[in-house]
Design goal:
This protein is mainly α. It folds into two domains: 1-82; 85-153. It is 88% helix and 0% strand. The chain is built from four helices and no strands. The termini are far apart.
Amino acid sequence: MKKLINHTSLLLNWTNRLTHVVISLALISATILITAAFFHSIYLAVQTHSLIKGFLHALGILLLLWTMVELINTEIRHLQGSPVDVAVFVEVALVVVVREIIMLPVEEAHPTWINLGMWTASAALLGLTYFLVRSGQHWLSVRSQENNSHADN
């Protein structure tokens, strides 16, 4: 039975590493595609002389690129042995919601007050969640440092 557990553990570790390679390749591919879409959006804005609408659209794409950078940084830290920071995923969700709010004026259909209210409430709740998570992490860090300094004395 112990041999089966060891083999299963090896298989799971191998699968985990392979999965992280796939995630890394997907992040690289998505980053390249989003970067190309960003420059294409700017090109179209200049071509069609629709600068405000085009640059707002490009800004929305740039926010997606920022999201990719955060996910890549999280993956790098995880591959180096750091635990995954939950706050990064809240931050990514917040950026996506902010992107949607920025994109509302350039959409073909005008948003209703209900849609605008829902997006704004989502941003506020995600912002509060992000603040609470980061505050909790800071509080735990301070407590840990206090405990370490008391242990040294």
